[in-house]
Amino acid sequence: MHQDLSRYGWIAVGAALATITLKAGAWLVTGSVGLLADAAESIVNLVAAVVALIALKVAAKPADKNHHFGHTKAEYFSAGVEGLMIFIAAASIIFFAVQRLLAPQPLEQVGIGLAISLVASAINGGVALVLLRAGARHNSITLRADGKHLMTDVYTSAGVLVGIVLVWVTKWNWLDPVVAIAVGINILIAGYGLVKESTEGLMDISLPKEDNDRLRQLLASRLDEGIDFHQMRTRESGTLQFMEFHLLVPGSWTVKQGHDFLEDLVDEIVAEFPRMSVTGHLEPIEDPRSYEHPL
């Protein structure tokens, strides 16, 4: 069964609620449209965290009669939704920023606003690192997406804070909305990356080239005269990996010989790729039909 990683989802939800409260307070104190943009992204973070939590719960469900390969692809829907939510946040940020650019306003109580925003950024940064490490450890696209999103929020906050300091020092009020627009563009780029990754997962993208090369090396290392393989293919589904290949052996082998050879090879592959589900098809190397239907 796929591991239940929803505890990380609850951490993300808690962080989003905390940062929304803090950043909204910073905006109310200063009147900065940059901080308003930052607070708007935190609302998106909350929605994304809730979606991620649901996806992690669904992905943890075991295979059933209608889903023989489990529910791990639910994670890709979460990453896709999060990417779309980032687009919405970016559009709202740019909208408010353009309005403020047309009518610049002075900032108030900047010091208090900066202090509040720094606390919120520290929370996001810490949670982002937890999610990114957990995503890498468990190969969870949902945790990686949420971690990347929160880390983007940290970079966003840093940019906003720099802009506010510059406005404070120079008294150039137009800098605040300009920084907010730059933040919105940066968020759009991050959203595109998440949507792209989730789409590739739903389309059964192959394992990375280095993994495929290593798998071919493992197969080749077991080959001998009269033994070959072909039609190897791989795919990822959430935290799981799948591999298929055809093993060509002498037709004179017994079923037991072929089965034992294949099982030993599969064990070697899984030992190096523990999340891999391997399907091997045994074929006689002399039979022309073994070479039909190439990939």
From TrEMBL:
UniProt xrefs under InterPro entries: Cation_efflux, Cation_efflux_CTD, Cation_efflux_CTD_sf, Cation_efflux_TM, Cation_efflux_TMD_sf, CDF_Transporter
| The family this protein is said to belong to | Belongs to the cation diffusion facilitator (CDF) transporter (TC 2.A.4) family.
Which segments cross the bilayer? 7-29, 35-56, 76-98, 110-132, 153-172, 178-195
Localization per record:
Membrane
Where does the record place the Cation efflux protein transmembrane domain? 10-203
Please cite one Gene Ontology biological process associated with this protein: intracellular zinc ion homeostasis
Q: A single Pfam family, by name?
A: ZT_dimer
Protein name according to UniProt: Cation transporter
Q: Could you state a single Gene Ontology molecular function term?
A: cadmium ion transmembrane transporter activity
What are the entry keywords? Membrane, Transmembrane, Transmembrane helix, Transport
Q: Which NCBIfam families match?
A: CDF
Q: Where is the Cation efflux protein cytoplasmic domain?
A: 207-284
Q: Which organism is it from?
A: Arachnia propionica
One GO CC term, this protein: plasma membrane
Could you tell me the membrane topology recorded for this protein? Multi-pass membrane protein
Q: Where does the UniProt entry say this protein principally localizes? A: membrane
